[in-house]
Prior knowledge:
This protein is about 45% helix and about 15% strand. It is an alpha/beta fold. The chain has two domains: about 5-300, Alpha-Beta Barrel (TIM Barrel); about 320-400, no CATH class. It has an eight-stranded parallel β-barrel, surrounded by five helices. Helix 1 (about 35-45) runs parallel beside helix 12, helix 10 packs antiparallel against helix 13 and helix 15 crosses helix 18 (about 380-395). The longest helix has 21 residues, at about 160-180. It is globular, with a radius of gyration of 22 Å. The relative contact order is 0.11. The mean pLDDT is about 95.
Amino acid sequence: MLMNDFLGDEVxxxxxxxxxxxxxxxxxxxxxxxxxxxxxxxxxxAGVNYFDTxxxxxxxxxxxxxxxxxxxxxxxxxxxxxxxxGHQITxxxxxxxxxxxxxxxxxxxxxxxxxxxxxYAASYEVYTDERWGIADYFIEQKxxxxxxxxxxxxxxxxxxxxxFLDYGARKYEELAQRDPExxxxxxxxxxxxxxxxxxxxxxxxxxxxxxxxxxxxxAGVPVVVMEPLRGGKLAELHEEPLSILRAVCPNRSAVExxxxxxxxxxxxxxxxxxxxxLAQVEDNCRIFQSAEAISEPEQDALMEAAETLKTGxxxxxxxxxxxxxxxxxxxxxxxATYNDLQFATTFTVxxxxxxxxxxxxxxxxxxxxxxxxMCPQGIGIPDTLSQLAAALDRIPKWADLCRERAEAAxxxxxx
Length: 415
């Protein structure tokens, strides 16, 4: 198994994600414990030692199931990561209550890696709000030895990612002034010691992951990758991208292409895979037994294949349209969202659209056409924004999902 030095620990480059565990009868709450045990056994036998879960995964059952499975092994033989759900919409936030519950559910006294879950425009305000004291609470847990490494995951845009890193640096400086002994426990001059982002060869450009990686590299923050296969969609490519890839390397599977590309990033320490079957575990572990560099022609082919997966509009984010819009709509951002939805519907789209100010959303376009006259690409912007507004009406709302998760958590505690 390929290994990395990750904040002083020897960690496998392939991580076991607990978001898509096998279930019974299609019920996300009914995780198949016996099957998970087989998958964990195979992963550990192959050298995997990083296991990732979170409070809301599988309606709260992921932490319990993974905890039970890992309890069969010595605690020092694996690294366990979980996350605080400050990204969820609720009336108040109680990090202490959630954290104690998570430790109990996982059956551990310490998390090796602990993340503030899903920093985006709205949750940034929650995590930095002194009313809730979220950062201060987890700094204290780090001091007490109940968290070994503190970090965050981010589905937000690059500016939000950069702003949160700045917040972490400011909190570190404050800590260094009042408690230098605790500050010395953090790797680097930031209370956020690592960051988990969505990274794959498609989102390198589609979700501007390239900019996010540049921000993290400049900050000296190591990376954990989520969604390396885009929810499995990059494992099932159609014929056009497959033919491009086969022309330069005929025997490499779509899955292997994705993982080999990610192995080329030295700042990427763990690549999480949300595996659902034993066969997926075995295949992924095989790929991570050795490194195989992507050549320059192969890199070019992969980027060409990525372009065939995009079916949206050719916006270059020149922003000429924005200055002409009487509503002040951030048209390039909405067109990027439209393009993202053309590939797959994800909850992150609804989540991000909820924080767009009223009056500046897709449905607020007046259809005046001023943007079209300014667009060098000739995009029919009003029609595209109308299509986006209709698509957003059809997808689940983030607030509704948060309510469902809160109800599931209460039911689980009642048991």
